[in-house]
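My current task is to audit a protein record that another person submitted. I need someone to confirm that the token line plausibly describes how this chain folds. Take the sequence as given and treat only the tokens as open to question. This is what I was given:
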Amino acid sequence: MKLKDKIGVITGGARGIGLAIARAYLEEGASVVVADIDQGAIDEALTTLQGEGHAAERLMGLRLDVCDRQAIDAMVESVTERFGGIDILVNNAAVFDMAPVLEVTEASYDKQFAVNVKGLFFTLQAVARAMVARGQGGRIINMSSQAGRRGEPLVSLYCATKAAVISLTQSCGLDLIKHGIRVNGIAPGVVDTPMWEEVDALFARYEQRPLGEKKRLVGEAVPYGRMGHPDDYAGPAVFLASDDSEYVVAQTLNVDGGNWMS
């Protein structure tokens, strides 16, 4: 029960890594807010979690578009009214797109930076303000990616957004620690989620590959021997949200099966 009586908000929490973290937080004693842009996915996630035996009074679902600052403020207000405050924020909401540099569109640029960087930062800011006002510190975990550690020819914008997440984690971590708020990040590698079907299809298009081949190859290339699973990120997210990481500040933890070392 490392998170007993804590309140955690997880953006993009209705599926994949976000849902795995929500489940782990509940198992560690926290109350959890599943915040996601897809109301149908929220409803399904809450039904699944309650069906696994997690009490409804420790669960809250909120539709949230992280590109809407008024919606972010309303989310903070609603969670504070329901639970009394926020102890943990997991900034997990993100979008992905890819194209050769010469084919990248302004619309793709705007969407990826709006969600992955601007939305992440202003969600962090709003929650951090509430944490400071409450005076009990807190934990903020930003989900980056191994793509933020290096460039990739077809993924220029996504890599840039995730590099920005690592940089923001460092700067915000250094700024907010004086308030007792520990900001850290997690950089996943390749993770077997439904989104990878879309990623695989894009690689098939741009690299002239059969469907499924790219996913198979990237999984085989991981030193661990397979792609990551959403549950692989539950433990690290509990660690960074708990007192076990008391002295960890402004770091981004690589959780990628050995793909990247730093």
Q: What stands out?
A: The longest helix spans residues 106-134.
